[in-house]
Amino acid sequence: MISCGLMSERKSVFRSPVFRVIRFVVLVYVGLVILMGVFQRMYIYYPATGEPSDLEAEAEELGLTAWRLSGGEFTGWKEERGNAANRLVVFHGNAGHALHREYYSHLFGTVDAGGPWEVYLFEYPGYGGREGRPSEKVFAESASAALDELLEESERPVYLLGESLGGGVAGRLAGERSEAVEGLVLLTPFTRLSDVGAAHFPFLPVRLLLRDHYDNERHLADYPGPVAMILAEHDEVVPARFGRELHEGFAGRKQLWVIEGADHNTLIDRVGGEIWEEMAAFLVED
Questions:
Q1: pLDDT tens digits, 215-226
Q2: pTM, two decimal places
């Protein structure tokens, strides 16, 4: 009789409205975790694409030409300056494509310190007119191949600039190929991607789900070159505290600029020419 009573009590608990609500919430949460885990790269990468012929026509109007590896593989865009003392490779953020960052060519074309600069706009596989599927591993391998090509072409110094997610690509390349990278510029950088993800989705086990880590803190731990960082005071995408933490943890030669009043998407418009001059001077300083 007691056993039957316990079984009846358990059945009543499982059938109770409260239990049904809890079960529904748990199922929804588990489903959300699975969904985010499976489709996570759709939430990380936002590539803009276009027909190669259309992009080349647009690039020509901007004074840029296709940057190809010796085997003919397209890897980005460049503005050639035969008398350039230094080369800068730009790794853009997770949205758009490389041609949307053509302003870096103009910015560094007017910088005196270390100039004139020759600017290369690296394009990610899966972005612009480049084939491939975005991932940290794919980006790292293609970036390293592009660096090899530049080193074979000339002994002129190579510097890297990475914005937002591109800072993770540039940071990893600098850490893994430190002997070949003279200096690094990071705009709106972060310690690691999982920190940013956890800040936006505190209710999800982001650190367990992520397949692409972009761990700048680890990659730059032993980097011997100079690192310049530019943060947006009111960055709503990559909170400035992560950039500050990365800057504070870096033991090498470094300099930090925090642009007051700027957010993630207005930063470039608020960085004045004097800051680019200071940054370039800092990078080439002996």
A1: 999 999 999 999
A2: 0.90
